[in-house]
Automatic annotation (TrEMBL), chains A, B:
Residues 32-108 form the RNA 2-O ribose methyltransferase substrate binding domain. GO terms for molecular function: RNA binding; RNA methyltransferase activity. Gene3D superfamilies: 3.30.1330.30, 3.40.1280.10. GO terms for cellular component: cytoplasm. It comes from Sphingomonas pokkalii. This is RNA methyltransferase. It holds the Pfam family SpoU_methylase. One of its GO terms (biological process) is RNA processing. Transmembrane segments: none annotated. The keyword RNA-binding does not apply. Belongs to the class IV-like SAM-binding methyltransferase superfamily. RNA methyltransferase TrmH family. The keyword Nucleotide-binding does not apply. It comes from the Bacteria.
Amino acid sequence: MPREITAYSNPLIKRMRNLRDKRHRREEGLFLAEGLRILTEAREAGRIPDYLFYTAESARHPLVAPLVAATEAQGGEAIETNADILSKLSGKDNPGSVVGVYPEFALELSAIDRSTAPIWLVAERLRDPGNLGTILRTGDAVGAGGLILLDDCVDPFSVEAVRASMGALFTVPVARARWEEFEPWLRAGPGQLVGLSLDTSHDYQAPRYAAPTFLLTGNEAQGMPPHMEQACDLLVKIPMLGKADSLNAAVATAVMAYEVRNQFRHG
Amino acid sequence: MPREITAYSNPLIKRMRNLRDKRHRREEGLFLAEGLRILTEAREAGRIPDYLFYTAESARHPLVAPLVAATEAQGGEAIETNADILSKLSGKDNPGSVVGVYPEFALELSAIDRSTAPIWLVAERLRDPGNLGTILRTGDAVGAGGLILLDDCVDPFSVEAVRASMGALFTVPVARARWEEFEPWLRAGPGQLVGLSLDTSHDYQAPRYAAPTFLLTGNEAQGMPPHMEQACDLLVKIPMLGKADSLNAAVATAVMAYEVRNQFRHG
């Protein structure tokens, strides 16, 4: 039976709101996601929240009942609240109709079966949560096996990253590793490491890619460090006609990932 | 001779800081841009700030002197200030070393010569300033003639849009128009209107595009309205393999723009 919380001073609300900070997420092992579309995507992927917050009004939506049922069936708590508290949890004026609090999940490199997908996305020191979420969304679209985050990337469980992923955080596996772990793991099996770089004249459409392709995108401002460039099987560049010397990192990843995917689908 | 401002209460600083709000930008006809890279890009494109703010420390950077000189030569004011004020102007903890205040510029549809470029980007009701800036950056890279913003788009002169454009706001012409103006203008000359849509099975790689191609991207959440879809010469879809039904709008625009550009360069 759902309980009702309407006071912002309620300790659970305060605790959940703190999950907007990385330190609290780390301590609790929980993160926030918002919006019916994203929570439904999560449910369909088998991810059920520990806590589900909704309003009396949103309870009438046909997609909310299955969320409430799934949450309670799995021992979580469904909590009716008001729009003001929902908006404080999400940090948005217009938070959508539901907020879920989920246990963080982690994927070990050793648990990845690279034969399950022809494309894998890899990013190193990604700083922008919007880019991270957008890359996950692209990963879902191109059928990537997962996203491997190298070294000090922004937290994929931040509110901004979850939002930008539009639910892909729940459908695209995310692993985190140091380069020193990743490189031996990569070399212990088949696959080519293709790096996006500005330090090459090799056009991204010239090579014939072979599955599995691991597509490596470097830090937004600096690109990848020299030792990673040297470790790539191939460095490629997306040609640019204008004044700027680089594309947005999520855009470059997408243009590249669609090139690989298009080659695979056309033969 | 540069003047010095170190008090946040200085009326000019207050006035400039207000430019972070759309209403004040509209009243003043001015907008903020930050960072040496972006301001230098602007200078090279012939855009000189009315006001240039820098710190004593940044004054030693070899790219700051030409900015100061250009600003003063054009009757603008170069103002030495401190990092705290720079950061308050930009709204970022780490604002970079310079902030410029520029006159807004506008481009009329009637002033566009479509024969100058094979690709033109068009977006309608774009809501996210990061997407707008990212699309400008992509426009620069693919050699687009400009970006035409239809109906109620987010302000291209917002701090977030300027930042995401990484300087492309200064190099890629931006026009704003209502659909009712755009459609007759478009049809008064050569060019095909290609719309990105989820309501078609037509693969984006199937058509042979012809210059000039006007590439239309719809609103992030809703796509474009039916009357615009009907007005397109061609609706195309980027295939998606995953659970999600759409890509980020800036990503979709880039994947599509590179397909058109690649066809033009290869054939």
